[in-house]
Amino acid sequence: MRDVEDREIVELYMARDLRALKLTEEKYGGYLSSVAGRILDCPEDAEECVNDAYMRAWSSIPPGRPENLRTYLGKLTRNLALNRLRDRTAGKRGGGQAEAALEELEEIVSGGDDVQAQAELRELTQALNDFIRALPRRRAEIFLRRYWHFDTPGEIAERFHMTEGAVTASLGRTRGKLREYLRKRGFEL
Q1: Which residues are CB-neighbours of 4 under 8 A, at least 6 positions away?
Q2: Residue 51 — φ and ψ, nearest 5°?
Q3: Pairwise pLDDT comparison (149 vs 137), residue with the higher score
Q4: 3-state class of 154 per DSSP?
Q5: DSSP string covering 56-121, please?
């Protein structure tokens, strides 16, 4: 099978052609399984999240037209997996890499359910994006590998040819700079 361009797949979604789902699964199924699997320790839950992501893509394209299909699908899958993890572990602590990574950031940022908290969350998201963009490239990649992809410090060390201790120290320094950055911008931590 020839490699189908993302724009062709998006056009199939726009035309409500079911081949879009088949092509999405063929092209991105492995990637999406990896995204969900890094967050969830249960292969069945990960598979359900991937299937839910396909359905969410089907119902959101149209009206949406993602610029980057891979990123769009990855974000859908990641959010679905995090929601499933949150539901499954409500009231519990620890266990997998996602929980460990989120607990590391928990002392810096926290969420809320009311309207004001949602507005603050949007502001916080923008501040986080600005902070990450301002980091040196390697430090930003290490930070994202841990807190977006949920890689273990050992996996990050291997990827960047570092020691695990150096990765842990780098992450700690970056979290400290993030805390300082957010305080200067008026976020209560």
Answers
A1: 23, 27
A2: -60, -40
A3: 137
A4: helix
A5: HHHHHTTT---S-HHHHHHHHHHHHHHHHHHHHTTT----SHHHHHHHHHHTT----SSHHHHHHH
Give the domain 6-88 fold: Rna Polymerase Sigma Factor; Chain: A (1.10.1740)
Query: Which tokens belong to 126?
Result: 């923008």
Q: Which of 61, 60, 6, 55 is nearest to 28 (CA)?
A: 6
Burial status of residue 67 (CB atoms within 10 A of its CB: 0-12, 13-18, 19 or more): exposed
> Nearest-CA neighbor of 167 among 147, 146, 181, 149?
146
> Burial, 78: exposed, middle or buried (Cβ in 10 Å; 0-12, 13-18, 19+)?
buried
Q: Domain segments of the chain: what residues?
A: 6-88, 97-184
State how far the Cα of 91 lies from the Cα of 93, in Å rounded to an integer. 7
DSSP 128-139: HHHHHHHS-HHH
Closest CA to 36 of 75, 7, 91: 75
pLDDT-derived band at 125 (thresholds 50, 70, 90) equals confident
Q: What is the CATH number of domain 97-184?
A: 1.10.10.10
Mean pLDDT score of the chain, rounded to an integer?
A: 86
This prediction's pTM:
0.65
